[in-house]
Fold these 4 entries.
Entry 1:
Amino acid sequence: MLCKTVILLGCAMLAILSCSKDTSTFVNTVPIYQDLKVTFDKTTRHSTALANFRANNANGLRLALNGSSDLLFNGNHPQIFSSTNAYSYTYEADSLQNMQFTFKKSNEQVFNNTISLKDTTNIDLPPTLTNVSIRQNTTIPFTGKPLQFGEQVTVYLVQHNTQSGLATESTPGVTSLVFPASLLSNFTVGSADLYIERTGLPMSLSETDGTAGGQKVTSVVVAKRVIINE
C-alpha cells in the first residue's frame, strides 16, 4: 500500500498520521479547504503566491500535503514550505503575472483556481508624500479608489534592514491612514523606504473540494523612498 502522510496542526496539538488505512481514507474522503493569495509588488515587479489548506472548512485543522498529493503554481512546485507559518506553501515569480494554483488530492482529484492582476484594486503613494515624522503621527494619503468594505490597507517603513510596526486601516471610504510615531522607536532621522499594501476582499474559488469551499485574496504593494525627520 502506498504510504500517504498528512500532518495536521491543531491549535495546540500536532498529530502525525502515516502509512495507515485510516490515513489514506482521511485524505481521500475529507473535503479540503483552499486558502489562496497572491501579492503583486508593483515596485519590484514581483509576484508572491501563498497557499494554505485545512480539513473540512475554514476553521479545520491545518494540513501539510504529502504522498501523492501535489500543488503547482503556474506549473511549478512551491519554492518554500513553512511548518511554522500555518503550513504554508510559497512560490515567487520575478514578474507581475497571473497565478494558476493546481491542487491535486491523493485520490487524483484536481482543482484549478487562478488569481489575476485584474482581480486587484490599484493603490499608490502620491508624489507629495516625502516625509514621515519620528516625533508626531503622520497622515499617509494614498491614491486609487477609496477603501472598500472588506479591504485593508497596511503601512510600514524599513530602514537599514529594520522594519517598523504595522499601521492598518479598514474603514470603508477612507483615502489615508495615520502612521503612529511610536512605531519608529528604533529608527533615526534619515532616509527610509515606506511600503503600503492594499489587501482586497476575499473572492470565491472556481473549483472547490466538495463542501469545503475556499477563498482567494489579492494584495498590491508599492513603495517609495521618504525622509524621516523630526
Entry 2:
Amino acid sequence: MSHQKKRHLSLKQQRNINKHRQKLIEKKSLKNQKASQELELLLDQEDNLEIKKGIVISRYGKSADVMPLEDDKFTSSHQRCFMKASLDDLVVGDIVFFYDINAEQSFIVEREERKNLITRFYFNKQRNIVANLTTMLITSSINPTLNTEIIDRYLIVAENSGVKPIILINKVDLVSSDEEKAEIENIINYYNSLGYTTFAVSATNNLNIDLIKNQLQDGLHILVGQTGVGKSSLINAIFGEDLMSVGEINYDTKLGKHTTTTSRLFKLNDHSALIDSPGIREFSLDNYSEPQLLKGYKELHDPTYACRFSDCNHVNNLGCGILRLRDDRKISDFRFKNLLSLLQQINQS
C-alpha cells in the first residue's frame, strides 16, 4: 500500500494564513463595535425607553444573550444584546439592565454589583468565567480515573469565592470490584466528614439524580470538572431531556472530547438555573497565594495546625503544623498528598 507524503505548509504560507485570519477577526470586531456605537446613538435619541432587568446566559464577542427577569424570576426567553464598551467583561451569571431599542435590537447599559466572581489563570492572564454563583457542582468520575486533586482544586476555588461546593462522583455504575467500591466509598465518606455534600451518582442509571435536584431548588449553580467526567450526561439526566451532546473518552489521553464550547445557563425553575462551563482539563491555581490555597483545606482551619514558619516547605521541617496534622492523622493520605502537590505547583509558578 502506498502512502502519500503529508504536505507541510512553509513558514511564509503559515504567516499569510495567520495574517488573513487576524484580518477576519479584526473585521468582525470592527463590525460589532460599529453596531454597538450605532445603538448607543439611538439610545441617546430615545427618552421613553423602558429599562429591563436580565441575566447573561452566554457571551459572544461584543454581544451577549440575556434572559429577562420578571420580579427576579427566571423566564423561558432570551435575546441577543449589544453592550457598552465599558461592559466588555460581562460573564454568564451577571445581572444586567438593558433597553429594547426596537423589535430586533437591545442594548445593555449597566451591570449589577457581583456577589462573587470565578476566574482562572490562562496563558498568564486572569480570565473571568462566571458570576453570582450559589453552588458549585464539582464533578469527577471513576472512568477514566478518579482524580481527587482536581476535586481539591475546585474546593479551593469554592472556599475562596464563598460558593457552596457539592461533590459528584459520576459513573459509579462502572465499578468493577469490591476493592474499587470500598476505595470510592472511603473517599466519599471522608469528604462528607469535612462537611462537603458528596454523592455517588450515575447519569446512565439515574442514580441519586433526585438528590442532586433537591440541592438545586434556589439560586445559580455551575457544573464543573474535567472533560470526560460526564457533565453533559448529568445535565441531560437532571433536566430529563437531551440538552447537551455527549462526548467519548480518548483512552490514549484518558480525557474526553470537549462537547461544550462556551458557558451557557439553563433554567431549572423560576428561582433556579444551572450553568454548564467548557471542560477544563487543567484548572490552574497559578494566581492563588499559599494562604488562599490553605484556606481551601478545612483540616487546616484549626489554628493548632497553622504552620509558624514563613518559608516552610511542609516536607521535612521540624515543628511544621501541616506535618503535625498528618502525624496526628487529622488529614487523609490522599488529601495530604494533594496538598503537597498543589503547594509545590503554586510555589514554582
Entry 3:
Amino acid sequence: MLGPERLGTANLLTESFTRRGVVVFFCDVDDTLVDTSWLYKIFMSEYASYIARLNGKIDSEVVRETMGNAIRGLRSTFRVHPTILKESARLAALQYGVDFYSDKSVSQVSRLMDLYTSAPPAFDGVLEAMEVIHASGVRIIAMSHSPEDWTEKKLAQNGLLKFFNEIYGVDTTKFKDGPAWRYVFGKYQIDPAHAMIVGDSWATDVKPALENQVLPQNIIRVMTDYTHANIGRIDGIQEVKYFRDVPGAIVSG
C-alpha cells in the first residue's frame, strides 16, 4: 500500500503518461535496474586471481583486463552469449601459461559460469521507483539482452518481478538492435509512438528506439559506469543519474 505522498506521485505519473500518449513502459534490466556489471566483475576477479596465482608473476587485475578486452573483441561473433565469457577465460589461461583443461581449471571455469545463475543487486531506489510506476497503471515490459529465465531471477530476487506485465529476452546470439526492437513492438502489438523506453545503453536502447520512431521525449537514458553502454552518445535525449530519478523525470518532462 502506497502512502499519500507516493500515491500522489503515482497519480502524477498517470497524468504524465496520458499527456505523453504513453501506454507501454519498456525498461532495460542489466545496469539499469540491477548492477550486472558488478556481478561480472566479482566472478571475473575470482577467476583472474586463480590465473594470477598459478602464473606467479602477473597481477590479477591485468588478467581481468585481458578477459575484458577479449570479451569486447568477441562481441561481433558471440554478441552476449555465455560463450563469450568462457572463451575469455580460455584465452587468459593460454596467455598466462595455465592449463585450461586441468581439473582445477575446469572447476574454476564452472564457478565462473555460475554467474549466469546468480542475481546482482538492484540499484538503490529502484524498488520504490518501480512501485510508483506500476501504480500509475501503465503496462510494463522488461526488454533485456539476457535469457528470460535469468532476467526473471534477477527481478524476482530483488522484489521487482511483480511489477512487470511481460518479460522479453533478445536472443543472446543476436544484437539488441533496431530489428530486435521492431520485432518486440510487433510481438506485443505496440505502436512505438505510444511507448516509453528507459535504459542505460545508447547503442541498444536509445538508438534502436529512435530508429523505430519512438518519440525522443519518451526516451530516458539512465547513466552508467558500464563502458560499452556509454558508446555512441545521442544529443537531445533526457538523462538521469539513477533509475530512482526516472519518475521525477517523467512527471517534469
Entry 4:
Amino acid sequence: MNRIVSGIILTGPATIQQAEEWKMKGSLLKKQKWAVGSALLIALCVASALVVTAFTRSSHAVVGHINGDSVSAEWFRMQLQQEAAGTFQYFHEQYGAEDSAEFWNRAHGGEVPIEHARRAAKRNLVAVMVQLQLAKAHGLLDDIRYETFEQELKEENERRREALATGKIIYGPTEYAEPDFFNYRFSNLVIRLKEKLRESDFRMSDEELRRMYEFDKRSFSFMNKRVVRVSVPTGEDGAKAAIEEARNRALEEENGEASADAYRSPLKAEEFLFDNRAGRADYAATGVSREVANPLTQGQVSGIYKENGFYCFLKVVELFQAEFPDFESRVDAMKQEHTEQEYARRVDRLVREAKTEWNPEALKRMKIR
C-alpha cells in the first residue's frame, strides 16, 4: 500500500524516517538549484554589462593605421557604408545579382560583395586620410581623429536645433547625417587646401605662366559656331510632325543657307553664336543645344532633341576659328588648372607611398547595415 508523507509518495517498505530524509534532500537540492540559477542570472547580467561596456569602449576601436595615424572602426564603417550602392550596382551589372538577405556574403564569379566593398573602402579611406594628413601638415586641421569629427557633428546639429527653436534661418538640412556632414566638411577642406597650396607648393612663376599660355595658345583649336536653332513647344498640336517636316527641309537646303527667317509659326527659329566665352547663364539657357552642336560641322543638321519644353534641332550656318583670349584674362584659369593637376598628382603619389597596416580580424567584423 502506498503512503503519502509530506507530499512524497512511498512505495514499498520505505519508512517514515526515510521519507523525511528524502524530503530534506529535496529541499536542499531545490536550494542548490536556486543558488546555481541565481548565480547564472547574476553572471549573465554582469556579462551583458561587460558586453555593453566593451561595445561602448570599442566604438572607436582601431582597425588599422595609415602613415602611423590610427583608423577607427567608425571611420572605416562610414566609408564602407558609402560603398554599398556602388558595390550592389557592380554585382548587379556584372553578375545579375539581386538584393537579398544573403547578397553580401554570397559569392558571384569568385567575388564576394562584402569583401569587394571592404577593399574599395580601404582604397578610398587611404585617399581620404592622406588628404586629411596633408591638410593637418598645412595648418588647416589640428586633429584628424574620428572622435573630433563626431564632436563637431554633435555641436553642429545642436547649433541647428537651437537656431530652429529660436526662429532663426538655417541653410541645408535641419540635422546632418554623419556621411553628409563628413562629405560637406571634407569637400570644403579640400577647396581651402588647394587654395593654400596654390600660393605655396603649387605657386607658378611668371615664366611658367607664360610657357603655359603659349602652349595652350598653340594647341588651341576651338571653332566658333553660328547656328540656327529651330524649336516648337512640345505641347503644341502637331508639334512633332511640324519639327520633323522643318528638319527635312533643312536637310535639303544648300550648305549654310538656312536662316532664322525661313521658319514660320508655330516654329520658332533663333540664331546663336556658340563660342568659348560662354558664362553660366548661357549654359543654363542653351546647355543642351551646346552639347548637341559640339560634333556638328559646317552645314550639318542635328537630330531632334528636347530642351526646356521644346522639340528642337540645330543647323550650323557658319564655322570660324575662335580668337584665343589674351594672357591677363587667362592667368587665374591657368593657375587653377595647374593647381588641380598638381593636387591630383600629389594625392596619387601620397596614396602610392602610404604605409598602411590593417587588422584583418577587425575588418571581417565590419558589415554593411
